[in-house]
Write a structure and sequence with these properties.
alpha+beta, Arc Repressor Mutant, subunit A, two-stranded antiparallel ribbon, 9 helices
Amino acid sequence: MDRLSAVGDPALRSALAFVRGHERCITADDLAAREGIHRNVARSRLERLAAAGLVETGTAREGVGRPAKTYGAAPELSAVEFPDHRIADLVGLLAEGRGDLHEVGAEFGRRLAKAAGLPRGRSLEEVAAGLRRLGFQVAEEGGALLTPTCPLRPLVAARPGLAALDEGMWSGLAGGRARCTAEGCLDPSASCRIAVLIQSRR
């Protein structure tokens, strides 16, 4: 199964949204409980997503017995229209000739923040939770954000010279009180690590 076929199937798309909506890897039992389906059906859906390269598998020990198989979002380097990356908005801002790349990225980040329903005085945890609501997998860890599915990762992976757009986006997402440095964007086996330094409020 290819990636587009996987996200075109409503049941698989729902399973993918569930995986990406969690900071940590999930199990078939987790999906079964969420969807109200048998664990074998849940496992089948997760395995089909793994075969399409949309999730990665691993193991985790939970109490006694053999380790449980886990599923997490795979790093994304090519665009799949799930979740909605809102590239049309970004292209529109660029076409309007709005300032430099960082400023265009910041406006794009503010639009993402609005779509995610983020409050004005938002924390890193709230930024991560908001992006998860939009279908991206993001976790807050030690003052940084980790994501294998950064909204602009496919674009920056294809054209590294556009990194200023990505930095601006994270600044806009953080409420205009941050500057960030993205690490790992071009490594196909790693999550992006965004160090967001919240400036002191006045």
